[in-house]
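Researcher: Please predict.
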Amino acid sequence: MSQKPGWLEAHGEPWKRGEARVVYENPWIKVTEQQAVAPTGKPALYGVVGFKNLALAILPIDEDGTVVLVGQHRFAFADYSWEIPEGGGPRDKDPLVSARRELAEETGLEADDWQEVLRVQLSNSVTDELAIGYVATGLRPAAGAWAQDDTEDLAMVRVPFRQALDAALEGHIKDALTVAMLLRAYHMAREGLLPGALASAMLG
């Protein structure tokens, strides 16, 4: 990783945390209400949604330049979403192990080559959710039987990379991690950060 430019350094006073209380908790999230002092010195009441798992995103790219997307109904927005395979993994476990499991569960695929390409904070004004993204290549059918989560009813499509990227840029794909990973992969293909034949297949 390159050295961080000086203009990325923090400035001003950080938030000061005071008394906190948990107002809601389930196996996936914890909502905390916390007294705080803002960087301006003003008192504030802050609510934070804490996530108990890492968010994991996998962009599976086949040698012909196609990518695998999964479709499902999403509860919070009450709509249908086409996305790359995504899921969660324990914070105290190697995220790559969890990512391999998610890929197999959602697509029935394994990958020979994995590259971590993204670490992002999702909605960092109100949550502490950290997401890690992988590009997975060398795809093949997963060994053994993999069961989807008992709340998931997934469809799966394999589409040319450029079609998926265009769908994201035109607003048809709205999932933030999918959009970010498609843009990251496009940058990698353009900048020579992926094998030449694969990049040509993706961009062609």
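Model: The two ends are 29 Å apart (CA to CA).
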